[in-house]
Amino acid sequence: MQFKFFAKTGVKLSALCLGAMTLGREADEKESFKILDRFTEAGGNFIDTADVYGKGRSEEIIGSWLKGKKRDELVIATKVRFSTGHGLNDIGLSRKHILSGIDESLKRLKTDYVDLYQIHAWDNFTDIEETLSSLDYLVRIGKVRYIGASNLKAWQIQKAIDLSKNNNWEKFTCLQSLYNLLERGIELEIADVINNENLAFIPWSPLRGGWLSGKFKRGMKKPPEKTRIEIAGEKGWSESWEAYDNERTWNVIDELLEVSKIIGKTTAQTAINWLVQKPFVTSPIIGARNIEQLNINLDATDWSLGKELSERRDRASDIKFPYYPYSENYKEKYLRN
Ligand SMILES: NC(=O)c1ccc[n+]([C@@H]2O[C@H](COP(=O)([O-])OP(=O)(O)OC[C@H]3O[C@@H](n4cnc5c(N)ncnc54)[C@H](OP(=O)(O)O)[C@@H]3O)[C@@H](O)[C@H]2O)c1
Fold it and tell me: Would you give the end-to-end CA distance of the chain in angstroms?
């Protein structure tokens, strides 16, 4: 597998990151170990988890699997922000929760540092200065190598980075956002922040939870049984059938199926490859519930569709921003060359 630089840090990451949200949730421990083994045998070194995945099981499984492995060869990312218990303060980005959160994650992961510690989302109830200075402290005492953010708006990322620079605190190296052929909202403003601030960018849900995996086809009246999308509705997850059963989704899927057939790849591979080919994407975070899915997804890098098919794949999902100051019209009129 090819490697990418982790922003300007000099650290090398595999071109695919293994998402560990399925570990301990859709995949039991035995299958999870197989997934972790296969990913690292294929050259993967980058794993993304969170304190809340499987209520801590994902981190625990990685910790058990790490025994006897060369920890330093891996880049392990986790997150803090969402509720980890019933206590009043077991949530948020306060100094209190961050400092206990990292210790709990390190315990479950059975390691003494994480490579990337990410805030899972914004916290309206904590001053961002408190959050950033707490994260800076964790870097200084060696529990964390780099810090990152997830699910932030453009102004929030920029504000946090500017505050860190002005206070000589460690600043975000990496952004993790939802980005795939069905969700391209980050192209509005966030992609500019990524480029201007030289951030690493690791998109989550490259198949939108399974929608782009090839098992969904126009004309279906409900999701296939026992899939993530079937249970998403009742669990209140954002990738539900109700949220995506619309004409735009089916157009994107139609085109993805066609293009994949022509190139001789699966739709999952072609959808992940769309991200791999984007210059501002560092490593898409791939998801798999079993070893078969992982094997398919691993073959999404190191090849290209070529210009014509790439344009077809892109066009079906393209979104236009009609409003000032984001419209093409405005850009043409006012952008200096
Ligand atoms: N920061 C955040 O807020 C956030 C949120 C979500 C995820 N993430 C990160 O992103 C990672 C990936 O997210 P994701 O799991 O949603 O990724 P995804 O690739 O969009 O969806 C994974 C699901 O798609 C299906 N699938 C995957 N590969 C397949 C294949 N080759 N053939 C058929 N079906 C396939 C499986 O579900 P079925 O078999 O059930 O269909 C699998 O569980 C997570 O592990 C996590 O690390 C972060």
Answer: 37
Atom of ligand 1 nearest to the CA of 292: 31
What's the CA dihedral at 246, 249, 255, 261 to 10 degrees?
-110
Using a 6 Å cutoff on CB, does residue 31 contact ligand 1? no
Orientation angle between helical segments 154-167 and 128-140, nearest 10 degrees: 60
Residue 289 CB–ligand 1 contact under 6 Å: yes
CB-count burial class (<10 Å; 0-12, 13-18, 19+) for 271: buried
> For the segment 72-112, what is each residue's pLDDT rounded down to a tens digit?
999 999 999 999 999 999 999 999 999 999 999 999 999 99
CA of 264 relative to ligand 1 center, distance in Å:
22
* Cα 32 to ligand 1 centroid, rounded to whole Å: 14
The response to whether residue 19 sits with its C-beta less than 6 Å from ligand 1 reads yes
Residue matched to tokens 């560092």? 282
* Sign of the C-alpha dihedral computed for residues 216, 220, 225 and 226 taken in this order: positive
Q: Give, for ligand 1, the residue of 18, 21, 118 to mutate: max count of ligand atoms closer than 8 Å to Cβ.
A: 21
Question: Residue 236's pLDDT is what?
Answer: 92
Pairing of strands 3-5, 12-14: antiparallel
CA dihedral 205, 94, 76, 29 (to 10 degrees): -70
pTM recorded for the entire structure: 0.97
Q: Which of 38, 282, 293 to mutate to test the pocket of ligand 1 (most atoms within 8 A of CB)?
A: 293
User: 116: closest CA among 16, 49, 29, 30?
Assistant: 49
Ramachandran area for residue 89 (φ above 0: left; ψ -120 to 50: alpha; else beta): alpha
Asked whether residue 334 carries a pLDDT value surpassing 60, the answer given is: no
**Cβ contact 291:34 at 8 Å:** yes
* Cβ of 151 less than 6 Å from ligand 1: yes
